[in-house]
Amino acid sequence: MTGPSAHDIKRGRQVRLVAVVIAVTMILWMGGQWLGGHFGWETRFVFLFDLAAIAGFIWALAVTYQIWRGRRA
Fold it and tell me: Does 73 have pLDDT greater than 90?
C-alpha cells in the first residue's frame, strides 16, 4: 500500500487553507459587525468589514474552483 502522492498532499494543504480562510473571514466579519453595532460606528466604517469579507470569500471561491478543475484534469 502506498501513501498519498505529492500532488495529493499539495491539494490537501490548499483545501485546508481555504477552510481556514473561510472560517477566519466569517469570524472576523461577524466580530466587526458586532463591534460596529456595540460602539455605534458609522455605517461606512462597518462597511469596510463587509468588503474585506467579500474579498476573502471571492479568494476562497477562486482557489476552490482551481482545486475542482485540478481534480477533473
Answer: no
